Amino acid sequence: MIKTKFEELGLKDSILKSINDLNFENPSDIQEKSIPVSLQGYDIIGQAQTGTGKTLAFGAPILSNMGPKGGAIQTLILAPTRELAIQVSEELLKLCKYEKYKILPIYGGQSFDRQLAALKRGVDIVVGTPGRILDHINRRTLKLQNVKFLVLDEADEMLNMGFIEDIESILSNLNEERQTLLFSATMPRPIKNLSKNYMKPDAQHIVIAKKSMTVSKIQQSYFLVNSSNKFDSLCRILDVDNPTTTIMFCKTKKGVDELVDALHGKGYSVEGMHGDMKQSQRMNTLAKFKSGQLHFLVATDVAARGIDVEDVTHVINYDLPQDIESYVHRIGRTGRANKEGIAYSFASRKEVSFIRQIENHTKSKIVKKDIPTLADIFSAKSGSLIENIGNVLQEDSYNTFLPMAKELINEYGAEDVTASLLKLMFDKELNCNYAEESVDVDDTTRLFLSIGKLDKARAKDVIEFLDNTAGVKGKEIGRIDILDKFSFVDVPSNLVNIILENSKGKMFGKRKVNIEISNKRK
């Protein structure tokens, strides 16, 4: 299949030159379909997933059609978060490398006076969050009557964050003859209403079909963990993979802080990002991560929105997200620009069913992996140890140590001395002092119970029954499948005998419950 080239889309030569400098080979689907339409001046509703190159899709044609620089604001771009506003402005700066339009990101948390001073000096493109843009409009410090191009980027996210009224207020201050480009991963009714009320009747709706929700280039795996071995498991994985640029996700701000502190204690180059941190601190952290000064970034979902860092090798879901879409957004931070990416998730027994839901929804495979043992770590690091020693031998810079080496070899033998030095090097390479050869994760056993829906049994009733009869708590119980006449329950293998001895034969309502180890998983 012959792929379309950027040169065939009708873009301005200077913009094509910038795209070539960025080493983009071929346009993505949304770029290929929307750029020619946008260049013709049509309003566009672009429906495509996050991470498909939407900034270039709207930025390249707008920059190609903009008038002379240095006058009034020609383009206004609205984005849901500060991080995304900054990211978009940075990408546009790269695209207009040979045009040198002045681009200003405007967002809350930044000095209002500083923004005002930049606006007075003259700006061609403003990229901002709705709240701060509206503040400027209300103060009459942002003149938008000459805006020719309006972009609503990630419109569904702006809707989710409650910006719909702000957006409508902003739209009411713009020239109706403008060209409007709306991009959104989903198309809920309020977004449809927005497009109907504020876009031209001949607006073009471009839909890019989902392709396994953009996870095809990402190797997805999960590790079965519990709260007591979770951090130890993480350290083992980092020791084996030795990733260079990794984003880790936690559910809560407290979780981010605790994980960052724990990783700091083990010597990792890591910082966190969440909503309670000052904007200047978050931007400084992101700058260090982008430049490679920082190898690990721990973030919440909200704080990570808009982060677009090239060459992220790993995404680690230290905590699983609340929904499947958030999972896809998270792991989409790696495997970009047709590169391979790795996504790991930590899951408890009760969370494995959610992993299966993700698989079904994304039509992808999430492989269960074993937590690395010390032998695995040794195997992973042995190659680099041998390579390092070989480099020292080739450099011939070890003469100072020869008398000491001869003395040790004469007393202990060459093999024992070499092995002991390798052990010292190996121990130094480890980020954690592992107490055990392997991580003990309770195996799960599936039990058959002779009660079901016909007995009016519900999951919470089964949990209550096992608690009352055997003292087994709900947090220890995994998947529960209730059929008409019987049920299946996943429990830790070390609790099976306790349940059989204490719960088997006990009454559930008016029936004695028979419990057996199941040989089949239904």
Automatic annotation (TrEMBL):
Residues 35-205 form the Helicase ATP-binding domain. GO terms for molecular function: ATP binding; hydrolase activity; RNA helicase activity; RNA strand annealing activity. Residues 4-32 form the DEAD-box RNA helicase Q domain. One of its GO terms (biological process) is response to cold. Keywords: ATP-binding, Cytoplasm, Helicase, Hydrolase, Nucleotide-binding. GO terms for cellular component: cytosol; ribosome. CDD domains: DEADc (cd00268), RRM_DbpA (cd12252), SF2_C_DEAD (cd18787). Its EC number is 3.6.4.13. A motif (Q motif) lies at residues 4-32. It comes from the Bacteria. InterPro entries: DbpA/CsdA_RNA-bd_dom (IPR005580), DEAD/DEAH_box_helicase_dom (IPR011545), DEAD/DEAH_RhlB (IPR044742), DEAD_box_RNA_helicases (IPR050547), Helicase_ATP-bd (IPR014001), Helicase_C-like (IPR001650), Nucleotide-bd_a/b_plait_sf (IPR012677), P-loop_NTPase (IPR027417). It catalyses: ATP + H2O = ADP + phosphate + H(+). Residues 217-378 form the Helicase C-terminal domain. Belongs to the DEAD box helicase family. This is ATP-dependent RNA helicase CshA.
